[in-house]
């Protein structure tokens, strides 16, 4: 019996999804979920654009995990999965202008407006600790 490609991909990426949802980050899997969450989120919202790449595994997700241990954190925590939940990711990216699409990446929004963004190229060559430090600085600035 062979496994379908869709089931294979679902099984392969589930641990990558779980790494963020275990932290209390809510997945937004459809454009409707994105639309219901991002523009009207009062206060601050962290949006992690998840990915299957090595820099997501080695730097982005661990950096987010470390940053969320900080005393000050965003009011809302969301994630979309690039390459998996394509329509939801495209809808979320509409809120991240002027930044071009990249994954992984991390957005911090305040009252529905983008206030801080970490692009893929800022993830690739940095450690999880450096990403966490940048996020905690942004949390201190915008989440009080």
TrEMBL record:
Gene3D superfamilies: 6.10.250.2150, Glutaredoxin
UniProt name for this protein: BrxA/BrxB family bacilliredoxin
Biological source species: Paenibacillus xylanilyticus
Superkingdom of source: Bacteria
Family as reported in the entry's similarity comment: Belongs to the bacilliredoxin family.
